[in-house]
Structures are given as C-alpha cells and as structure tokens.
C-alpha cells in the first residue's frame, strides 16, 4: 500500500506512482482519495461498441480504455481500475493517473486544466496547451530559473476561491527525450513516463510546498508554431474559448450534468486571471527564450 499527497489530499493507492509526492503527514490520518485495482462492472449490460464511457447520475462514471481495461470514478474520491489480463502494467499506471482522473476533480467541484504551473513570487502562473505543445519543457525552463514547480501537465484549479487557487499536483516533470537533452536534465530522470515512447519522469530543479497559491496568469500555447515568439493578452471572449479547449474531459463532465459548473469555473478564471496566448517558435532551442518572455509579461502585468 502506498500513500501520497495530491492537491492537498491524502491518497491511498494499490500502485506506486513516481510522479506523485509521498505522504509525509500524520500516518493514521484517514485517506481522502483511493486508487484501487479491482473488478469494475459496466453500468449497462455491456460496453457498447465504440462507447468510451457510461454515467450514472453525477457521481459515477465508468470509462473504457481500449486494450487496457475499465475504470470506475465515483463520488470524487474513488478510482478503481479493472485491468485486462494482458494489459501492459506501465500503460495501466499511466492511464490510472492520466486524463480519466480529471473526472474525480470535476466531481469534487474543481476544474482540471491541461497545463503546467509554477510559483513566481507569491503567486502561481500556468502554461496550458495541446499535447506536445511544450508545456512541460517551458515549466522545466522556469524551474531552472528558480520558479518552484506546483503541478506538471495536469493543473487542478479551485475556482470558487477569489482569486482562484492552484492545488499542488504532480511535482515531477514529464519530458520528451529531446526536451530533456536540450534542458540538460537527463541525470534527473527517475522513471520512464511511457513504455513505448522516449518520454521520461524528471525531478525538477525546484518544487513547491505550502498552501495553494493564487493563480494570476495563464499562458495558452497556440496549436500552430511560428518563426517568431509572440505573446498577446486576450480579451474575455477569446479567453473563454481558448480556456475551454484546455479543460480535461469536458464531454464526460457534461454527461455527468456538470455543464453549468464548467461554465461558472471558466467565467471565474477569466474574470480574475490574466489570459495570454503564446505563439512559440518551432525550435526547441528557444524554450528558454519563451520562459524568459513569460516571466517578463508577468512582471509587467
């Protein structure tokens, strides 16, 4: 049995996760969230062809991962993974704490964003964007500049607070090999992040500990790269539209009846956080330039 600290909560897990921070609090404190391996029944009589998930009210969702297994997420506090007998254990681990986990945070009333976050002074800034967009590489460059890592790749925001707070999440970076080489952090690799890809779990230069910091700036990476680095502050409507694209599993959350919660959370963030769009150069060697430009915008805002 393993115990971790995630988003300020105690997690009890049947599996070990190098991405998570070990629990160092009181040993006999009850866990808040449990990650289990076990049997999961479909909510209907069988998994329909092409059907990725099934819901039952707002508090139960079963997610089918082709070739891996079936996952139950319920009540914002329990994830059970029914892995198929021939499943790769590494794929089970990755999916266990991957995007399906975002349902748990939706159920708890938070908003999970596809973003990495670091602490700058007394506040948090986040870098969001598509897969392979460079979020973790920019976060790694920021930690090398003395900004503690708050969460990598998966940022959970408590939007009901004013200002919104970033809950400390995965405090290991997940970097592609080319990024790890460019940033000279291969010696900080602690595990393979994907069994079939050159992606690694990397201990960052600096991590954050303490109360959840306020989110003041969110930098959203454009899907298309450019020759030159460009950062512009977005107005409310494009901020909302771009932020919606960064939400983890919005369709599943809507199926749970949480559409109004998503709308309210994004409105709360847009109304109190500086939202920027970043067109990054299509050159990994410029990642430090992007990190420096982000820090300049934060200082000027």
What is the first-to-last residue Cα distance? 46 Å
Order of strands in the sheet with the most strands? 3-1-2-4-8-7-6-5
Q: From N to C, what is the helix and strand string?
A: EEEEEEEEHHEEEHEEEEHEEEEHHHEH
Question: For the report, how would you describe the main beta sheet?
Answer: 8 strands, mixed
Can you give the helix content as a percent range? Answer: 10-25%
Helix/sheet category? alpha+beta
**The CATH C-level class name of the largest domain:** Alpha Beta
From the spread of the alpha carbons, the general shape counts as globular
Mean pLDDT: 92
Question: Could you characterize the architecture of this molecule?
Answer:
With 301 residues, the chain is of the alpha+beta class. It has 2 domains: 2-107, no CATH class; 111-300, 3-Layer(aba) Sandwich (Rossmann fold). The chain is 25% helix and 31% strand. The chain is built from 8 helices and 20 strands. It has helices at 89-96, 102-107, 135-144, 177-182, 236-245, 250-255, 259-272, 287-300; strands spanning 2-6, 9-13, 21-22, 33-37, 53-56, 60-65, 69-74, 78-83, 111-113, 115-120, 123-128, 149-151, 155-158, 165-167, 173-176, 189-192, 199-202, 214-221, 230-233, 274-279. The strands form 4 sheets. The protein has an 8-stranded mixed β-sheet with strand order 3-1-2-4-8-7-6-5. A hairpin with a 3-residue loop joins strand 7 (69-74) and strand 8. Helix 3 (135-144) crosses helix 8 (287-300) and helix 5 crosses helix 7 (259-272). It starts with a strand and ends with a helix. The mean pLDDT is 92.
